[in-house]
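Q: Here's a chain of 303 amino acids. Please give me its 3D structure as tokens.
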Amino acid sequence: MATASDKVRRARPLLGTFVEIEAAGAVKSKLNTAIDAAFEAVASVHRLMSFHEPDSDVSRLNREACVRPVGVHAWTYQVLQAAVEMHRRSNGMFDIAVAPKLQAMGLLPRLGEDVPIGTEARSFDAIELLEGQEVRFRQANVRIDLGGIAKGFAVDRALEVLRGFGAAGGLVNAGGDLAAFGQGPQTVHIRHPRDPRRSICGVEVTDDALASTARRFDPFQSADTASSAIIDLGSRRPADAIDGATVRAPSCMMADALTKIVMIAGTDATELLEQYNASALLISTDGDVQITPDWHHAVYLAA
């Protein structure tokens, strides 16, 4: 006798946060196998693209790519391609070569020889993507960090695994970067960026990818929020145009990257959002919520 279809939801600490994966529409044993494989895909992205792991592709590039071409995994190469293209389209606002500034702020560990602030390179003239999945840095002062895009990519890969196992529906949530398919509308609550204990609105998600970025908040350190970890490379300071941004896009990787641009550019990012078929919700410093016109139907302000 066949076992009835079920729904399974599990969580693990990965990517510096808790990753929650849900799958539905098959027997429980098959769903558990699918979720195990999805978690392994997320763990693989972490191993490849972590700034902290000494054997990751990112760490090898930061050590060696200024001396010789370095071969990387196909996934890493795919993320680098997307990041360099996003850098070009955003006129430099999205830049994975921001690692030295994040190190100076204490947001990334100092590893080896530091790059003096003000001398760090920019992606458009520093990162060369070669054939055969090889990468070369044109300058010795290049340090990259994929933290602004890799988490969304990991969500996409996990969702792809769930689909490959035949799940009828699924959801992957990696600390606010999430994507869902096949389960009908679900409401995601967006926290107030200056008071993360309360919700400012709800966003309806169906077959969508969603990513959010806001002011930093560590409840173990303080009840107050701190400045953004998104660096405006024009001013070389944390972005302060708005307090929080949520972006809906066809892929979580794109949504993840676009939140950083929206945090810097605010409503001036509208044209770029349209290029990526994306929508945005912006929370200003006084708590006002602005929503791009194509997304009003799926956003519900809190009472």
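Q: Can you summarize the key feature?
A: The radius of gyration is 19 Å.
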